[in-house]
Amino acid sequence: MTVRFTLNGEPQRCEVPPHWTLLRMLRDAAGHTDAKHGCGEGVCGACAVFLDGIAVNSCSVLAPQVEGATVETVGGLDRDGDLHPLQAELVASGGVQCGFCTPGMVISGIEAVRLGAAGSEAEIRHSLAGNLCRCTGYGKIVAAVGAYRDGEATGVDGDGVRTTDGAPGAAPAPEVGIGP
Amino acid sequence: MSGVEVKPGRRVVGSDLARHDAIEKVAGRTVYAADFALPGMLHARLKRSDYAHAKLTRVDTTAAEALDGVVAVYTAADVPRNTVWVDVPGQTLEVGALKARSNVLADGVVRYHGEPIALVAAESDDAALAALDAIEVDYEPLPVVDDAERALDPEAPQIHESGNLLAHWELEEGDAEAGIASAAAVVEDEYRTQFIDHAYLEPEAGVSWRDTDGVITIRAATQVVEHFRDVARILDLPDNKVRLITPYVGGGFGGKEDMTVEPYLGIVVALTGRPARMVWSRQESLQARQNRHAVRMRYRTGADADGRLVAMDVDILSDGGAYALLSALVLLYSTTCAAGPYRCPNVRIRARTVYTNHTPCSAMRGFGGMQVALGYEGQMDRLAAELGVDPLELRRRNFVERGDTLPIGQPLETTVELPALIEAVTERLEPPPEPSAPRRAVGRGFACNLQPYGRCVWLNDWSSAWIGFELDGTLVIRIAVPDIGGGQASSLIQIASEVLGVAPERITIHIGDSALNPLTGTTTATRQLYMSGNAVLKAARDLREQLAGVAAELLEVEPEQVEFGAEGVSVAGGERSLEFRELLAACASVDVSWHVHATYRAPKGVPWQADESWRGRVFPDFTYGCHAADVEVDLDSGQTRVLRYVAGHDVGQTINPQSVEGQIEGGVAMGLGYALSERLVFDEAQNLTGSFAQYLIPTAVEVPEIDTVVLESGEGMGPFNARGIGEPPIGPPAPAVAAAIRDAIGARLTELPFTPERVAAAVRAREEDADAEG
Ligand code: FES
Ligand code: FES
User: Fold this and answer.
1) ipTM exceeding 0.90, yes/no
2) What is the distance in angstroms between the Cα of A4 and the nearest Cα belonging to chain B?
3) I want to staple B209 with a disulfide (CB 3.0 to 4.6 A). Which of A137, B137, B243, B275 is the partner?
4) Contact B201 A83 (CB under 8 A)
5) Rounded Cα distance, B27 and A90, in Å
6) What pTM, to 2 d.p., does this model score?
């Protein structure tokens, strides 16, 4: 069947069997692999995307359900090449190790701040409880969400490489060469 | 926050430089193993055993092959050489071979639930799944062995012809029996640890294709790029006809040390000629890939009246599961570390690992060196209680020091900063909080550990790296290091930048390719910063020396006076300078090249023989730690919450503080999962834990704030005297939590994990005892 939706601001048209999930459609039909498949059953949060502005686990949404909807993935968050402020905070805080949980963490972190569910450290931790991370122990991710919340509150946004507590900002990305 | 600062005279080593790979990852641009695709690629899946032990009386693939879109279904007979040999993975050939073998596809018998029986390649993943259902397998169930003790019973079913004893190590130093007899206090206990999963977020995945000149190329999530040789062996091809590429990996922790998808991807491309992709489901990852060994340890520990250890008698029995994999080596780590970081004149250690029908066990962060921490630290706490000595004071009286040897004869040549770590960790602690409600109790516990870094010395380990300038003055590092998330690649950029002055953003690193980059060995055994770091350091220093000679001529100074900066070289604080571009042009004119290849070699040694008399060096060096945990226990539900955690390690020298803290925080979180919630559950060797809804790794809510104490002794065998820190933080959490629970409820728990049921039962037993006495 055909599913038409808006993906990161662009119109998208995918031919998929009706049993496919949104995650599978994004990855295997639309060629957007930035949402990750960590469990396929709604537990790990690595596949989180915004669906009509609300964070969802895309492995738990069927592709036909997004007909006419707007989908935003982590790859669509940067503005003119600058990282989204939460993305920049995650880099600056050291909250990214293997990075496989990161796309989902970014989506959930933004959602938590948007919903006002990131007021305290404990609230942030609860808001991220649907996103598993096996590498970081969460502390630096929680700190990054807190710094992003503070930035949103004061409106000090800036250039996407804001720093936390005097830590040096994100260096510009060097080319990464890893073979084909 | 660690409070680490960049030392005077250093530019980037010791600074919180943002990782280049983090920027790519956070933007969703990193192309992980499962994100890669090739036109016309097939989709590969495995048919796995429903039984834990059975004869395969019939495997019929006809119906599956006839399905639309199914290209091929392979069984054992189709695999050119159906044996997976686990010798010593990595770049070392034929030294200390383990000769552990398993099958690529089951050959007549399955020995664990989930063992691969057939391999399907289809035009779509849906077709591959349909084919799995259409493969007909008839099983004749065999009796199951699901208990390590029972496996040693002569009457037990034999899982392999060689018998159920997989490997053993014995060690006796001094006279343990006499020591125990002479001791003023003796404590004895049994400790049990569970099977757990690595549970990285990225399931096993890869893509393969046939490249120029018939080279079978596999791009897969692995910690060991040298597995190209193992694939070649299976495909019956020369080693140089297989190439393995490892992209940035979504977590490893030892679970991607043995091969996972690699052989199957190789088979499909070799036999069909078409590219292929294989991605394991979370269920496959949890149920059918190797685990951490469950271990039963019996400790008898004796001390004199001053609390000095006089004897230790340790019996270790580990469940290796259905195939040997790395079990013998894992057990060797347990044996070496069983006495902990303590001096003891009389030690006997008997360690055995056995075959059962559980999912095979193999490498996982801590690699046998971590399970025993529950034993040796539990004993120190018991002994302290017995003697009425403060547990930390008892430890202080017994710590090993530089110049000591471990019971196996391992010399300790670098400083052991455990007393300083205890002090630093204690300083960070606040007074224990009051319980948050009635029927809650708080407690505090400590644990120390040692964990080796680098591989066993007789493996003759080495790492190579290539560094070269580009004509515009940018720098390239080429090294086949797999980056599994710990900053393995970015740390190397930092090291090269430190020596050569080139700004980190002007350095590009090409990693993880067995054909195009110098081999540097496995990302395992906490060896990568140590080994690859030393290789890159050596290459960078060689290159600097090479260029300094040419620069010195041009600037009319001695080579030692040439300073390397971000844009080029200079003398006398910038009085005269040359841009790198100019310097390279000058090099060309005098036939000096601007690239080098360098190799770092680890210390060598003599292989450990499995007899009691062998003594010697096993590892290059160790990393030591001290952790403290504050917990609150709900006395009715048994729920244990970790309120606060302080983790201290001597890392020698920090390369990147955030990466060091990240390793410690992540290791502690994983260790807390081990302590409190994680366990693979088997019923007659059927693995029942196939989902993250059943296998509970800690979330942001369960993991407390972790305060890291990073001590820099300036001693270690890595670059700039760094010590490895990947594995060491996983050891202390379980014994620290055990001690904290004991402090809170007055009862000792010795079997992991400390689930609410077990804690509540311990509280009830304790309260009943008190009632009976009262
Ligand atoms: S992949 Fe969707 S929640 Fe795990
Ligand atoms: S960074 Fe690896 S899972 Fe979170």
Assistant:
1) yes
2) 22
3) B275
4) no
5) 11
6) 0.95
